[in-house]
Amino acid sequence: MSDAKIQTAIERYLLARHDLLQLGRVHPGRIGGNDNIIGRIGEFIALRFLEGLGQQPTKVLGSSNQGYDLVEKHRKTQVKVITEENQKGRNVRLTEPWNQFVLIELGQHYKPVRVGILSKAQQEQALAENAGWSPTPIVKRTMLGPKGLIGRYGRVYQENELAV
Questions:
Q1: Cis bond before residue 97 (omega within 30° of 0)
Q2: Given the DSSP bridges, would you call strands 90-93 and 138-140 parallel, antiparallel or unpaired?
Q3: pLDDT digits (tens, 9 = 90+) for 90-122
C-alpha cells in the first residue's frame, strides 16, 4: 500500500471521527458521550436494538457513568462492545449498578453479528447455580456462546435476527 493510500485512509477516518463527535454535540441523547467512539456506536446500536424490543431507553448524559449507559424508568442498562480486532475477546468488568446488560459483538466491517441481553435476575440465577462465578465478571466474547453467561441464562440474537 502506498503512502498516498495510507494518507487517504487516515483522512477518511479522521473526517468520520469528526462527524461522529459533531453529531454527538447535536444529538447527545443518541450518539453523545466520551471520546470512545466504538463505545458511542455500541450505545447507539443498543438504543436501536432495545427500541426494537419495545423498550424506550434514553442515554445517560455525561461522558462517564459508573455501571450503566442507558435508562428507562427503573431499568439501568450497561452496554459493552467487543470488536473483531479484539483478538482475546475480553473487555472490562461489569460494574454496579445495572439491572440489564447488553453485549454487542461487532464483526467484519464493524457490523453487529451477535447481541446478547441479560437481566440482573438472570445473572443472579447463574450465580446461584455456579458458585465459582464472579458477580462482577470480565466481559468476554464467550459470554455469547452456548456455554457462556448470556448464552445459558440470557438471550443471544444472531445477525439474521438483528434489525439494527
A1: yes
A2: antiparallel
A3: 888 998 999 999 999 999 888 999 999 999 999
Q: Which residues contact 51 (CB under 8 A, 6 or more apart)?
A: 57
Q: Are 68 and 98 in contact, with CB atoms under 8 Å apart?
A: yes
Q: Tell me phi and psi for residue 81, to 5 degrees.
A: -130, 135
Task: For cell 453529531, name the residue.
Answer: 23
The beta-strand segments (E) located in the chain are: 58-59, 70-72, 75-83, 90-93, 100-106, 112-119, 138-140, 155-158
Tell me the pLDDT tens digit for each residue of 82-95. 998 888 888 889 98
Least confident of 78-82, 147-151, 158-162: 158-162
Residue 71 in contact with residue 60, Cβ under 8 Å?
yes
Q: How many CA atoms lie within 13 A of 144 on its CB side?
A: 24
53 CB burial (10 A radius; 0-12, 13-18, 19+): exposed
> CB of 96 within 8 A of CB of 118?
no
Q: pTM here?
A: 0.90
Cα–Cα distance for residue pair 21/156, rounded to 1 Å: 30
Distance CA 151, CA 154 (A): 6
